[in-house]
Amino acid sequence: MKMHIGQELMAIAMQQLEAIENISLLPVSSSAEIANQGLNNLNLTDTLEMLRDHLLQLEAWQRSQQATLDRYQDLFEFAPDGYFVTDANGDISEANRAAMLMFGSHPIGKNLENFVYPSYKEQFQRLIGQLQRGQNIKSLDFRMQFPTGQPYEASFTIISMRSPNDGKVLGMRWWIQDITQRRQDTDKLQQSHQRLEIRVAEMNAKLNLMDRQIRMEREEQRRISRNLIRNEAKLRAIMQHSSDIVNILDIDTTIQYCSPAVFQNLGYMPEDLIGKKFIKFIHADDLPIFQNFLAHTVDMVAVSTPIVMRYQHINGDWIYLESVCCDLLQDSNVQGLVVNSRNVTERKRTESALRESELRIGAIASSMPATFYRIAINHQGKVSIPFVSDGLVDLVGMSPRQAIANPYQILDLIHPEDVDQFKALVQAGFDKLATFRHEFRIISISGDIKWAQNITRYYQTESGQVIADGVCIDISERGEAEANLQHTNELLCAVMKAVPVAIDIISPEGKVLLWNAVAAELFAWDQIAATSHSTPIVSDSQELQSAILDTLAGNPLNNVSIRLQINKINKINNGQLHNQEWIDAIISTVLVHDLNGKIIGVLRIIDKSVHQSVHQSVHQNERINPNLSYADSQITPITAESSLRTPSLAPVLAPVSGNQLIHQYKIGQRNFAGWQLSGADLTKADLQQIDLRGAELNGSNCSDVNFYNANLRGADLRGVNFQSANLQGADLRGADLRGADLENAKLEDALIEGAIFASTHNH
To answer: What is the pTM of this model?
Structure first.
């Protein structure tokens, strides 16, 4: 600003200086003209006086003008900026000291172009041309150079001098300033300004970013606030309707807060519990658990391990609650111990029932003459045995713990000849997820070879694991029994073939199911089957028909004399028989049952020789078990479909009454395992060492029965009357004795591990 004011003052001074010079250049004739004008009107004296006054005024004015001129000349000479005058071509005619410092000590007469920086000379020439043409250019910047050749930046202010007659440019007055420092300062200022602008832009960007962040944070805060309000409402609703109890306790267990769920679980109103001690409602036996629970929970921010304790209901009952605790004493929003409790009473009851069931099932599994197991195979194909019963010890001599620890060692016990088939069946079971039944041999730890029957069901769980549940039964005794039975069958067939009496079995429909050679000869059945290929039918004799019907009605015959009309075959015309005759005979009958106790027919023994002793016939009858049926390749079989089937000769193992069991026992049978004997009357029966494992005797009358050393392992004995019964040495392990009456029963040396005695009378 000061520089600009100075420039204006210098311009005004130059104009005033020019005016003074013009005045000083006025000719003297002007004064004479003024005097002549006055002389016309004044006299000489007055004229002289006037002239003297004018001269004095003129001298005073000239001195004043000279002083002003000197002052302006000094101002021109000693001005800090350069002033110089050039003609129209740019030749310097006058210059002050400042200009001489820029142009050298003798710039007068030199053209201003000599002091212009070389690269600006062409532009300077255009400038001179424009000024000569009368263009009004007041100021501009050029790069000049000192006489030493050093460049500097110069700012020019130009005033054109024109002719008063035609206005032609006669010359120019120049005001020059060295603005190098100012230009540098300006450049620096511009750079600083640019940097400032960049900085301002960066700050604006940061401010905009901060503004966006602030807006986002405010929006996030509003969203969080809305969520917080919703969450608080949700939490309030959850706490209001949740079945879990939430308590906030002081360090001394004083209840600060209690959720409404306490009314649903314990019957108390929440406001009634505020200020009371939490431990007041805990069972005395569970207080040590709770105290230890608190000791481990305090100063631990994480949720504690759950504990189960009994809490007193408002009605006096004890409710099982599972509780967890979190120490929030240091949290200013809570300042307490937060205890979450859940009612697990039903779960505890279920667990208790499950344990009881597992004990019962374990006892039953232990008492059963079989090995129960579970095999699992995971996604990687690894086989494990989660469970195997104690029957494994009896089967192979290996403990369940050993088998679970190393499942693959069981394969070493499979007979070498059966290993490949066993592996193939197991693999097929896992692949097809079906039920498989197969028999194989095993070699026990003691070296004994046993036959075993394996029944396994394979299935897949939701997690993709394949499970195999099965039972392995030792059937070695069955094999021996089958061999003995085969031997017995052969012996009985030989007896039937050799005995001189007719033996046959007649079905309830009247079809002949089995006969020996004497019966075939007596009734001519061989000729009928050979000629007509039809099934032999019972004779039309009224006596024989009555004998069958009486036996089916429960009245079997024993050595009854009858007179029979039989057919004698001489010839067969159109399927008709001829030559009938009458004979005297002795007949005995008995019912024949299958394995399930169903009547399959009537066994007849007919002795047509009246000269033979009746007692001999009876003796032969008793040698044949009337409750047995037989098959032999020498005896013609008759199937059910074609009436040519021979029933199995195995003993009937499923009697339906106590009398049948007693009868079988008397003839030597001891194994009645699994029989259905519910409600049987066995009063005062002598059944020493009888095998009733797993039998159903519930509701039976066994008073005064001698069960000395009997095997009742796993039997259903619910509600059985054992009054005064002898159970000394009996195996009652796993038996269900609930409701059984054991008054005056002898139980010395009886095995009762795992037996269920709940609600047993006089136990």
So the answer is: 0.33
